[in-house]
Write a structure and sequence with these properties.
Helix content is about 70%, strand content about 0%. It has a two-stranded antiparallel sheet. The longest helix is centred in the middle third of the chain and has 34 residues.
Amino acid sequence: MEHRIPVFTDDTIVFGLLMLALGFIFYTSSLKTGFWAKFYKIVPALFMAYMVPALLTTLGLISPEWTSLSKTGEIVHHKTSLYYVASRYLLPAALVLMTLSIDLKAVFNLGPKALIMFFTGTVGIIIGGPIAVYLIALVSPETVGGAGADAVWRGLATLAGSWIGGGANQTAMLEIYGYNQKLYGGMVFVDIVVANIWMALLLIGIGRSNKIDKWLKSDTSAIETLKEKVTHFSQKVSRNPSLTDLIILTAIAFGSVSIAHFLGGHLSAFFTRVVSNIDSATTRNIFTFLDSEFFWMISISTIIAIILSFTKLKNYEGAGASKFGSVFIYILVASIGMKMDLTLIFDNLGLVVVGLVWMSIHAGLLILVAKLIKAPYFFLAVGSQANVGGAASAPIVASAFHPSLATVGVLLAVFGYAVGTIGAIVTTILMQLVAPT
């Protein structure tokens, strides 16, 4: 997959452009009258925070990665570090700050519907893959055909790993089924395009969540109770933050991040050794998520935050803890948005269509079950993103409803890591059965 050289290649300049975009979005969304007031009644600000960077990438101003020729004629690959910094440093910091004032009892009072919708999303991915392959094979068998290491079902196995678990599960599926790594970039692209289109639709839906909940006839009382508890607590401890408050908030956030990175690195190394010593290749790949440093970093950050929520440090919510966490989340959203080049959709159109059909089945099943059990749109959106987006995206969608709900997204995403490889193997077996030979 070729990436043209963008106009701005310096991370400092690109970061500045992203922040200017966020500043423009927040300023215009704060206007109460005129065009922008009407615009943001239809399009959520969070969606714009995602789409404007995508447009900057599409226009060639910025890019997540690109290639160039060196003076000796060799191809040099470049990659921005902004998403890495946002996901490895700002995301865990945001989770700590947004979880600091969490009412864990109120989270558990949300009931079983959150888990039901999460596993519905998982089942949607498992059955969606083979159904998509079967349907596309009826129209264009060459799109989902191939033999040996080039067989498309082997590549789609990596999508199943990503959409149920995450990056570690995706890599495990690549190893298990031995898809041609020269073609793997195309699958990664389909993953990015389809998952981001679905995330964009979910974000648009958040702006209409009240209407959707009425249509679903859902009971949102537990969610509203949690929001009210956190809001009431925030108002109770609210104060004009001093410099000392801001420094302590920074210390809490990034001190926790440093601990999470330290412990995550050691746990990842430990489990890498443990998993590598498992004799069965299938069993070894099922537990491959345990050697992911990102998995441990997110999990440890959340655990630290939950522990801190039982101490007096939770009062720092009054100094703006969740607001600073939200700033970090929006920077992460912008860095995810810049990974999307809309023009590249047409480069791999056949496989993109497979992915879109697959995701439509996942979405359709979620809507059906949500309607049947009267689950709120919040559970539908977060249950889906905990599968498809993982720990990087689920908190974004959850916090769009309310900062206090970010933890719910993380907890569900952890389930995704645990069941990702097993679910992806089942999906792949079914895809192999229906794929044209």
